[in-house]
């Protein structure tokens, strides 16, 4: 039997902060290198694509005591201890550091022997992950953390974190190169948050596929009608919406100022796909929301308004139990095989057992 979740304890402060940081960094350093020796870089990168594996690492290092900052601390420590000679690299980070990937990646690419085409593709992936989670998925959270973990074979994971500026709640987004077939069609391996919103605009959901298709159609045929709709809130001779329809329309109607010159130019250029539309640099939340609003008002096609995030307590309901335990056992094996001092091994295994289970996988 096991429990799922991450304890939410008070953060570090005062003179104890440096001691805790150094201890957690030592654990992450030894355990990550032990994991690399046993399973290899690709397996480590794929592990971090799973929200629960990331929480395993956070918990084993004692970083769950820092609550929302745990991902930031973990990212900083991973970047310090992993180097390209390990067969993996960590790029980006929090706040302004997340914008440094275009400068960091070419240096890593030289060491890994990546071609220019490969570098351009990886940079595109990094940009589109950030664009998708801030523009195509509009959940009321603002991104402030973007970290790419990359192996020498080109396998990548991106972890992003965002903040609700009103409630101060955070959520974490996970992406894996092996899953992404499209950046706008169910691309995540998981989105984790304790705060689940009643309504969000999720243009990446399968339920939004028709809305994505119709958005391109509106650009091709009805930009002038879309502008009138935005100005007046309804079309001439339009049937009056019921209460639910009005509620949806009010939610979808963009509050941002719309760059109509850009909208008309997009209509002339006619993007071939929704991903191509999203990739246009100036296309932001307002235009994506405008198109979803127009499609709903003109054609009655509603995008997904369901929040795709889920709390950590639902891990075991969303993932196969054997897979969950296998990932846990991988980390346990890495801890046991590491060169950590015995007391730190016991500490890490105890933390995993306390938070995620009390059975055989986490025995010392």
UniProtKB/TrEMBL annotation:
InterPro entries hit by this protein? DUF763
What Pfam families would the database entry show? Answer: DUF763
Domain of life here? Archaea
Name the PANTHER family on file.
BLL3834 PROTEIN
User: What is the name of this protein?
Assistant: DUF763 domain-containing protein
